Amino acid sequence: MQEPNLNNIEKHLTRLVRERNLFTTPDQLAGAGDYIREYLQSVHLSVVEETVPFEGKQSKNILGLKEGVDSSQGVFVLGAHYDTVAGSPGADDNASAVAALLEIARCLENSQLNASLLFAGFTLEEYG
């Protein structure tokens, strides 16, 4: 496992800390999802997007899978949400957890795991 790098976490926070809301800043929410997807792909995860419809609009969950060597061990999920309430930069709720999620994915990039690990960037948590 690679050592965590605080500079990487700071880079993620710099990119993510801003309002990311489906109704007030949908482009920024979509941009955050794109950033998460691109980063998970850069650490060689198998990434899919799951469309989430809500009140006539839609956003996407970003799911990156690191395959384990023993399928009988199941899949563990490590997740964080990347949307914010309107008017909030979302640093503590929840860019900090997204930054940690991305750094953990990088740290495990070259590691072999027994169980599969799904890295999930969830959207629309603020709406339930």
Strand content: 25-35%
Question: Any idea of the CATH topology?
Answer: Aminopeptidase
CATH class: Alpha Beta
Distance between the first and last residues' Cα:
35 Å
Number of domains: 1
Radius of gyration: 15 Å
Coarse structural class:
alpha+beta
Provide the helix percentage: 25-40%
The ordered H/E elements are HHEEEHE
Walk across the major sheet and give the strand order: 1-2-4-3
Tell me the total number of β-strands: 4
Summed over residues and divided by their number, the pLDDT gives a mean of: 97
| CATH level-4 homologous superfamily | Zn peptidases
Q: Extract low-pLDDT stretches.
A: none
Estimate the global geometry from the Cα principal axes.
globular
Helical stretch count? Answer: 3
Main sheet characteristics: 4 strands, mixed
The CATH level-2 architecture is identified as 3-Layer(aba) Sandwich
Domain Peptidase M28: 63-128
Protein name: Peptidase M28 domain-containing protein
Organism: hydrothermal vent metagenome
GO molecular function, one term: metalloexopeptidase activity
Describe this protein's structure.
- One of its GO terms (molecular function) is metalloexopeptidase activity.
- The chain has 128 residues and is of the alpha+beta class.
- The protein has a single domain, classed as Zn peptidases (Aminopeptidase).
- Helices cover 35% and strands 26% of the residues.
- It has three helices and four strands; from the N terminus they run ααβββαβ.
- It has helices spanning 6-16, 26-42, 91-107, and strands at residues 46-54, 57-66, 75-81, 116-122.
- Strands 1-2-4-3 form a four-stranded mixed beta sheet.
- The longest helix has 17 residues, at 26-42.
- It is globular, with a radius of gyration of 15 Å.
- The model has no long low-confidence stretch (mean pLDDT 97).
